[in-house]
Amino acid sequence: MQSIESVRWSPNQRAVRIIDQRKLPNEYVERDLTSLDEVCDAIRTLAVRGAPAIGICGAMGLCVAVVAHAAAGRDAFIARARDTARRIASTRPTAVNLSWALDRVVNRAEATPRNSAAVLIAMRDEATRILEEDRAMCLRIGEAGVELLKNGARVLTHCNAGALATGGLGTALAPVYVAAERGQEVSVLATETRPLLQGSRLTAWELTRAGIPVTVITDSAAASRMRAGEVDLCIVGADRVVANGDVANKVGTYALAVLARHHGIPFYVAMPTSTIDPSLASGDEIIIEQRDSKEVSTLGERRITADGVVVGNAAFDVTPAELITAFITDKGVIHPPFDFKSK
What we know:
CATH class of the largest domain: Alpha Beta
CATH topology of the largest domain: Rossmann fold
Distance between the termini: 29 Å
Largest sheet: 7 strands, mixed
């Protein structure tokens, strides 16, 4: 159903081709990332974003970045790949998919014998597998989650966890797309998602493009919409899920989970199992990315806070497992009690 490809290889596999999401919805611009600096900048500045998509971009970007060193000996080439992977991983510390994908490509390199050229081919193959697996996982998430949507379902979502955030249909939006494809009536309430407006800019754009009814609301309007009985269920994505089921996702997710519990509305988290980080016992251990204060203190080029005002700009918050009705994953719907001590 979806023809959006947020991240993929360029035709010659010498570049990572992305949709520059900073330009949406006013401009549709595709960019080819051809160097390590370009890959890191695209991930850091949210030109490409969404946990699965940045994992794919990081894996492909690692291959692109080390091409220039393919003439080196095998050991030196792999050492360069490890260093490059660490630099890419540092751009977005909260989303586990980025480090997970980079580790897969580095591990494939280390397991490949012969020369550097053979290692590079194996690395590209692994990055391609990550993309293909993500597409398949998104579809499985959609097929698992659609069973939770009655005909006429009104879904509230936060940020963007659709096709733009993945290599396929999306995570939180995958059940919506599958429902629409099956002929079910479904509509979406999309929070605008301050400060970078991923909901109003991206979620609304891709749903409108797909012909699915969507209404953008301010973040602070979610409570009154729930109280008015206009929300049947909430589905959000995740950037990291730890062993006890706590979830790091776009800041504002925790507030929505609290509101949903108060109003008796199911609150679902949709994610591939690659988003699980069993090495952390609880959400208290998750490193929360702190972003530039200008994202909050300015609107476009216009300053909207007084000079000298202290601004906090945490990109994510942590939703405790007890507020989550179930996880919608590529391995089915997982109900509590949650135990993610292994993937």
